[in-house]
User: Fold this.
Amino acid sequence: MTARQEPVPRENPPGEPFGVRLRRAMDTRGPLCVGIDPHGSLLTAWGLGDDLAGLERFTRTTVEALADRVAVLKPQSAFFERFGSRGIAVLEKAVEEARAAGALVLMDAKRGDIGSTMEAYARTYLDKDSPLFSDAVTLSPYLGFGSLRPALDAAAVSGAGVFVLALTSNPEGAEVQRATAADGRPLAQVVLDHIAAENRGAPVLGSVGAVVGATLGDAGVDLAVNGPLLAPGIGAQGATPADLPGVFGAAIGNVVPSVSRGVLRYGPGVAALREAAERFTAEVRTAVAAARDTPS
Assistant:
């Protein structure tokens, strides 16, 4: 039987920043994010229908298995949206129950727009009165980093965080993210520099994070942003925890590796899901410790 982790305290001081809460969760539970990605093939693999009942069962089981022990749960909004309003209702309940059990919830929505539309997205995920209020949300900066200002401001007010796409794990991303800006910097570096500016002076860990794929081999950019680095690509996309030091170097202590299918494929048993998450967490801790012990 696996030991139950103590939940991340919810009696946080009013306005305690996301970066502070995330650092505490990483230190106590381990630096792992597990995605909740109920796509059709996983529902089938669990013996469930690709329907609302299957979605509800999959989501409830994943939250039950992991919300009291992993640092971050990351529901992918699209897999709930495809079921319409009833799917969104399942997502709302998952967010509420996961946060109540102590996990930090990162809504993987990858929103990006301008003006009042961006403000509406910010109110959806970063306003405490919203039923979809999450501890953090993923954002796309490729309409210009300044277009994210409504979300950045809303997160600061509510004590939430954001993770901004910088260098993603999909190969197609390079044609935009590796492109050269007018001043000669890669576009991804421009984004990272903006993130660093937002986090300047933040205690412990800034609340504006970057998404940097674990599959990159060598990021080739400056990752010193004083904020968390979400690292998708562990597991099904081919990266392993042992790859993290090569990608993130000295910034590895701020990395939150993200795995979805690598854990979820062990369902529907609760015990098997927990054991898979614990294996990944142990492997990440080993990789981080080894990187810190290796002379630069």
The chain is about 45% helix and 15% strand. Residues 270-293 form the longest helix (24 residues). The first strand starts at residue 33 and ends at 36. Residues 56 and 90 are 6 Å apart (CA to CA).
